[in-house]
Design goal:
There is one protein chain. By secondary structure, this protein is an alpha/beta fold. It folds into two domains: 128 residues, Four Helix Bundle (Hemerythrin (Met), subunit A), CATH 1.20.120.420; 238 residues, Translation initiation factor eif-2b, domain 2 (Rossmann fold), CATH 3.40.50. The protein is built from 13 helices and 18 strands. Helix 1 runs antiparallel to helix 2 and helix 2 runs antiparallel to helix 3. The longest helix has 38 residues. 47% of the residues are buried.
Length: 373
């Protein structure tokens, strides 16, 4: 996607061939800056601090983190340390574990002298696979938008509501929920996005609005509690969100507040779609509410907010009373019964076990083989 007219990705190998570049997303939208990661520890901190975030980008970042570790020490002990260190950074997004398992499989049986090169190749492949998956999701989701556009009169716009940031900033490129939106916009379909601000951390206001604006997509930032009102008044044609983990039966774990949007959509007859890259499917989990660990982050994300003052300074301020306890659940689970469909790289499918298993049989078979072994 584009930043100031320049094609840009969220992660890349630097020209020195021994470090990784990222966009520091904690500084957006008021400052665009890149950071160079040189060590395993820096990669782990980038994930933990949310300089990089979003399930697909976390997976790619972890893959490059393994490569950085092996550049310095390709021993079995350091490979294990890299896996353990990176796996502990974010517990909810399944792409993290998937990418680490892919990296482990790519290098563990190789001579030490070959491990770094093999790790870099697999990390690059993971990044390119993510781009291809997201573009395919965009193509399938575009058909949904085109169908709605065909019902509009006099060139009326298609209104999409999205929650948090499932855009290209959450992936290597294109995004998941935003990929159909970008393709529709680029094709000339009148489209407008209602972007939930998404407290805490405000990823919708800070990130989704930033990237949509840079690409020229019409949008409006709304408070999190506004979506239901818009749906009641017929101002939302469809909801598209992303996911950090989806279970074998189609339950969707995503940024806190997603469940409430799904409830409002169901009550108002608004289609609720989830853009789902296949590495986000966890076929080892069935009941999302009971089985997915929900990350609880620091209270400062709720107790403080960061913004730009009239004189251009970026400051953080406290917004809760001194001494008030704060809870910060980062995710919630939307049951499959509330999901109209899953937009995957292999098409739009139903949110149920049979449809997921049919669409991705190799994942199910691999799990069965591993269980037998």
């Amino acid at each position: 996607m584009k930043v100031d007219g320049k094609p840009t990705r969220t992660i890349w190998v630097e020209s020195d061939g021994r470090s990784v570049g990222i966009i520091d997303q904690t500084l957006l939208p008021h400052c665009y800056a890149t950071v160079r990661l040189r060590t395993l520890e820096e990669a782990a901190q980038a994930i933990k601090s949310m300089q990089v975030r979003g399930a697909p980008l976390i997976g790619a970042s972890a893959a490059y983190g393994v490569w950085l570790a092996l550049l310095h020490d390709a021993s079995d002990e350091n490979l294990e340390r890299a896996y353990t260190t990176l796996a502990a950074t974010r517990p909810t997004a399944i792409n993290l574990k998937w990418a680490l398992d892919e990296m482990l499989a790519a290098v563990r049986n190789r001579p030490r002298a070959e491990r770094a090169d093999a790790a870099l190749k697999r990390a690059n492949d993971i990044a390119e696979e993510d781009v291809a998956i997201n573009f395919a999701i965009g193509g399938h989701g575009l058909k949904l938008i085109e169908a709605i556009a065909a019902t509009k009169k006099n060139g009326e716009r298609v209104n999409v509501l999205t929650h948090c940031n499932a855009g290209w900033l959450a992936t290597v490129d294109w995004g998941t929920a935003t990929a159909p939106i970008y393709l529709a916009h680029d094709k000339g379909i009148p489209i407008h996005v209602f972007a939930d601000e998404t407290r805490p951390r405000n990823q919708g206001a800070s990130l989704t609005a930033w990237e949509l604006g840079h690409h020229g997509v019409p949008h409006t930032v709304i408070p999190d509690n506004t979506g239901g009102h818009l749906m009641q008044h017929g101002l939302v044609d469809l909801v598209i969100v992303g996911t950090d983990r989806t279970t074998a039966q189609g339950d969707v774990c995503n940024k806190i507040g997603t469940y409430l949007k799904a409830l409002a959509a169901r009550d108002n007859g608004v289609p609720f779609y989830v853009a789902l890259p296949s590495p986000t499917i966890d076929f080892t989990v069935s009941d999302g509410v009971a089985e997915i660990p929900i990350e609880q982050r620091g209270p400062e994300e709720v107790a403080t907010m960061t913004g730009k003052t009239k004189d251009g300074r970026v400051v953080s301020v406290q917004v809760v009373p001194d001494g008030s306890p704060v809870a910060n659940y980062a995710f919630d689970v939307t049951p499959a019964r509330l999901v109209t469909g899953l937009i995957t790289e292999r098409g739009v499918i139903a949110a149920n076990r049979a449809a997921l298993a049919k669409a991705f049989p190799e994942r199910v078979n691999a799990l069965k083989s591993a269980a037998k072994a």
